[in-house]
Amino acid sequence: MWAGTDGARGPGRGAVILGALLTGMLLAGVPRAFALNPALDASQYAHMAWPIRSGFVKGTIAAIAQTPDGYLWLGTEFGLFRFDGVGALPWQPPHGQQLNNSGIRGLLVARDGTLWIGTADSFTSWNGATLTRHPQLAGQSVWTLMEDRDGTVWAGGQAATPAGKVCAIRGGSVQCFGEDGRFGRYVETLFEDRGRNLWVGSTSGLWQWRPGPPRLYPMPDRVEGLIEGDNGAVTIAMLTGIRQLMQGKSEPYLLAGAPRFSPRSFLRDRDGGLWIGTADRGVVHVHEGRTDVFGRSEGLSGDFVERLFEDREGNIWVATLDGLDRFRDLAVPKISVEQGLSNPTVESVLAARDGSMWLGTLDGLNRWDNGRVTIYRKSSGLPDAAIESLFQDSQDRIWAATRGGLAYLENGHFIRVDGVPGGVQSIAGDRAGSLWVSQKDILFHLRDRQVVERFPWTRLGRPEQSRSMIVDPTRGGLWLALRGALGYFQDGEIRTLYTPADGLGAGHIRDLELDRQGAVWASTAGGLSRLKNGRVATLTSKNGLPCDDAHWAMEDNEHALWVYMACALVRLSKPELDAWADAAKPDPRRQFHVTVFDASDGFRGHAATTGFSPSVARSAD
């Protein structure tokens, strides 16, 4: 397998949203094999650049193709290179065979595996053993190559005299057109649409070459690229702009929200995203009704794009004047200010029952609904714009704890609750409508949106607040994540404490999760602990985890357990864990299969978290 397919992947469904210390990140629970997630901007994909100045290859890359063995072939002004995803090596044909010109202009790998090579003055094919020259295009600079649905290879040439040609190659037969000068000097691009219409972009204009007799549509500028639009119209790239051919007439095509740019080429990826290579802005990415730009200022190797290419693994390759760039999908792409958030520091995240996501940031509460962001600040009634913890009660009200106090959303406006100051790390509620608020000094009990009881932590015998709380649905009490202990609170007192002496992981408990079987999962600095029926079992690095420090755990819809750790994000089989923990004597060294997501998948771990909750949420999809 070619080296571009690195990274761990897991098969879970749904999506888990992570509230990270520095940046909000989206974990796509359905890693998209061999495709890019069309919902994401280009900046949310994994991007890597190979600049020419690093000595990666000689000269500008003008053409890209991929052979069945997985290698990428790069055509440059100084010859042909074979690229394995790490390094590129010059390619030379067998002894006694040679290309007429080292300046490679066009490359195509046909369905039969043949590599077609267009150079500055020749046209050649390589079947893995023999180079074959095709003299019909001798003297032509072959820039554009394509294979139609019938398996015919089409080549377009450029020449000073007499004129550019188009040649069709099928089997051993070669038929060329354009000696009469109808295309002008340049044949820039070839394209077959879904209706099997063949289009030729040339100096003289846009030709509908088949079916029927060829027909010319004059254009105001030289045709650089062709693609089929979402409405089925032929979309045309010219340096002066994009046009569409509608009912035999070309008209300007404008992209809403896009800056001015000079388009050169198009690529439609397999999920429908449109990539536009430009002469001045890098790549313009059009997807799901949105447009974003990725150029040199965003990290692209250059702003002048020579070629776009999608490989078999779904990676998008961009050849610029100054290098080669790759975009690939990430299991954990990030959501930040580029996608509309009010601030990149996400302190808490909540999945509401209406399908929206609520993200508490340092500067505003963000409601994310299918990519649309609504921002709430003090003008919306919040006591402060710095958001701490979030909660949705049994009446579907959204509660937001801020540095300035606590408030709930009603009729589009937040209403402050008197008597609860800032510093709230966790909120929990029961079906009867009672709310519990863990503030740094006091555990508050609210009923009917009013404070009815206050329990100072010192009175409860604890020097610190609970970082996470969950209501026990059976007994009605509270499970509290305490420093070095898991406590059960009911009727105004902590009735039970579980400590490392009982098998609990050592150190701070950062998060609690109640699963569908009624077990409590405690994420501790010393491992992931499970409490059920009074028994504690703890999973650590001895069982195959990449480290011991767990920040949170959550079960997905496919009965997998996701664990955010300081060193990685991991996925485990929940039924396998339950069977182990329910055993009469769990083997402390039992090894589990762990799927690990690390930096190569977009995951950025942190040794510490914000301490506000919830820090993870499972979205409705």
Task: Give your account of this protein's structure.
- With 621 residues, this protein is an all-beta fold.
- 1% of the residues lie in helices and 46% in strands.
- It is elongated and about 95 Å long.
- The two termini are 32 Å apart.
- Which term fits the overall shape? elongated
Total DSSP helices: 1
Widest sheet: strand order?
Answer: 31-2-1-56
Specify Rg, calculated over alpha carbons: 30 Å
Q: How many β-strand stretches? A: 56
Mean pLDDT: 89
Our estimate of the beta-strand percent is: over 45%
Euclidean distance between termini CA atoms? 32 Å
Low-confidence stretches: 1-14, 20-33
The portion of residues assigned to helices is under 10%
> Largest sheet, described in full?
4 strands, antiparallel
Structural class: mainly beta
Quick structural overview:
By secondary structure, the protein is mostly beta strands. The chain has a four-stranded antiparallel β-sheet with strand order 31-2-1-56, with no helix packed on it.
